[in-house]
């Protein structure tokens, strides 16, 4: 009998009573198989097959179906601290777009061809399904890659086939900020609207909707002219039902204190009076959570509900109808840079973890800011000519 082989190596041998065999060691476990063709060449052929199987996963163990493995992968992501809303998105994307086509495929049988066919079908649309955007398919690629990476660690597969596939090219994000005159028109029209104070606040601070919906009065200092972003309202599913909960920011940079302009402070004073009126009106069912922008019963606002009112508001105010509420954040950033604002200050206001995120989104996309930087550089060297 030959000496013990290292992990991943193998050998062939002839043993009395067994005949020609192939042996391979995998993760400290020795796997021995008898060759069907009882020759040295037959044993060598068997060894090569065992080595190929070892590249795909544990030999002799049946890899689970993709649809059976998804719950295990999601459970592992939850243990790592993945946020409930993020887990919900992962589950939705995989269940709706991946499992109908690949759910009955074993993990070790996933091939480059099968995954590429999935991407093609999703980009083009099939049957009654509408085509998905390249960004959505690229996110599916990321999720599948993470799932297979976890499966490799658990010993279900020997390689991650997603590493051999390029995701769809995603067009670079283009913000759609309001022009200065449209921003002023919005502030004027918002005064009489139920959600006008909220929209004014978003435009004046650059906060995300969830951050505004989770803002509490104890984080507002009107005398100092500051607000503290310590949590956000997010939608989660629990026991088959969706509900709004308050959760801390995803990153340390998201937890921040922001200065507010005087006109935002004035709007917050008006909002405090509105909330007191709302509370008196809904007293029997009011749930006091100390929110600055609560729903009609004191609970966190749902973005989908406010978005419906936003669409109607844009039409009535004569504003660009493709403007999203999130574009108020982009408007804040664009106008600040356009007026000579500092990029680092903008990063901290927006709560970005890295400066390059802010720069990638806005630098070079604000013509006035770009022109002003060039003019200042020109003035710096003007005396040398």
Summarize the structure.
The chain is mostly helical and 385 residues long. It is built from 14 helices and 8 strands.
| Whole-number total of structural domains | 3
Q: What is the percentage of strand-forming residues?
A: 5-15%
SS-based structural class? Answer: mainly alpha
Shape: elongated
Order of helices and strands: EEEHHHHHHHHEEEEEHHHHHH
Which fold name fills CATH's third level, the topology of the largest domain?
hpI Integrase, Chain A
Mean pLDDT metric: 87
Q: Which residue ranges are poorly predicted, with pLDDT under 50 across at least 5 consecutive positions?
A: 1-6
Question: How do the strands line up in the largest sheet?
Answer: 1-2-3
Name of the CATH superfamily of the largest domain: Intergrase catalytic core
Provide the gyration radius in Å: 29 Å
Helix content: 40-55%
Instruction: Tell me which CATH architecture of the largest domain applies here.
Output: Orthogonal Bundle
Instruction: Count all strands and give the number.
Output: 8
Helical stretch tally = 14
The CATH top-level class label of the largest domain: Mainly Alpha
Distance between the termini: 86 Å
The description of the largest β-sheet is:
3 strands, antiparallel
């Amino acid at each position: 009998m030959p000496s013990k082989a290292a992990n991943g190596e193998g050998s062939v041998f002839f043993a009395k009573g067994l005949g020609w065999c192939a042996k391979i060691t995998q993760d400290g476990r020795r796997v021995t198989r008898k060759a069907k063709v009882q020759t040295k060449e037959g044993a060598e052929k068997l060894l090569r097959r065992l080595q190929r199987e070892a590249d795909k996963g544990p030999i002799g163990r049946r890899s689970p179906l993709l649809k059976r493995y998804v719950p295990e992968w999601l459970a592992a992501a939850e243990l790592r601290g993945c946020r409930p809303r993020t887990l919900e998105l992962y589950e939705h994307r995989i269940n709706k777009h991946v499992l109908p086509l690949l759910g009955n495929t074993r993990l070790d049988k996933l091939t480059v061809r099968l995954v590429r066919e999935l991407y093609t079908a999703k980009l083009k649309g099939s049957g009654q399904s509408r085509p998905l955007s390249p960004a959505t398919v690229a996110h599916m690629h990321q999720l599948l890659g993470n799932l297979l990476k976890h499966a490799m660690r658990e010993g279900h597969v020997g390689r991650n086939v997603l590493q051999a596939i390029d995701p769809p090219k995603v067009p670079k994000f283009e913000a759609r900020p309001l022009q200065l005159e449209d921003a002023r028109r919005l502030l004027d029209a918002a005064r009489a609207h139920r959600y006008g104070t909220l929209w004014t606040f978003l435009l004046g601070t650059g906060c995300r909707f969830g951050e505004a919906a989770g803002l509490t009065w104890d984080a507002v200092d009107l005398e100092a002219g500051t607000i503290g972003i310590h949590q956000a309202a997010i939608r989660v599913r629990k026991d088959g039902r969706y509900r709004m909960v308050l959760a801390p920011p995803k990153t340390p940079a998201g937890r921040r204190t922001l200065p507010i302009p005087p006109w935002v402070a004035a709007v917050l004073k008006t909002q405090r009076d509105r909330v007191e009126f709302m509370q008196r009106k809904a007293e029997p069912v009011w749930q006091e959570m100390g929110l600055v922008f609560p729903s009609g019963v004191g609970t966190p606002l749902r973005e989908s509900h406010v978005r419906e009112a936003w669409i109607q508001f844009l039409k009535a105010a004569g504003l660009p109808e493709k403007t999203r509420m999130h574009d108020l954040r982009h408007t804040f950033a664009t106008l600040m840079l356009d007026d000579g604002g500092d990029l680092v200050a903008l990063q901290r206001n927006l709560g970005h973890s890295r400066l390059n995120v802010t720069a990638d989104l806005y630098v070079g996309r604000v013509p006035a800011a770009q022109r002003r930087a060039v003019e200042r550089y020109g003035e710096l060297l003007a005396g040398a000519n």
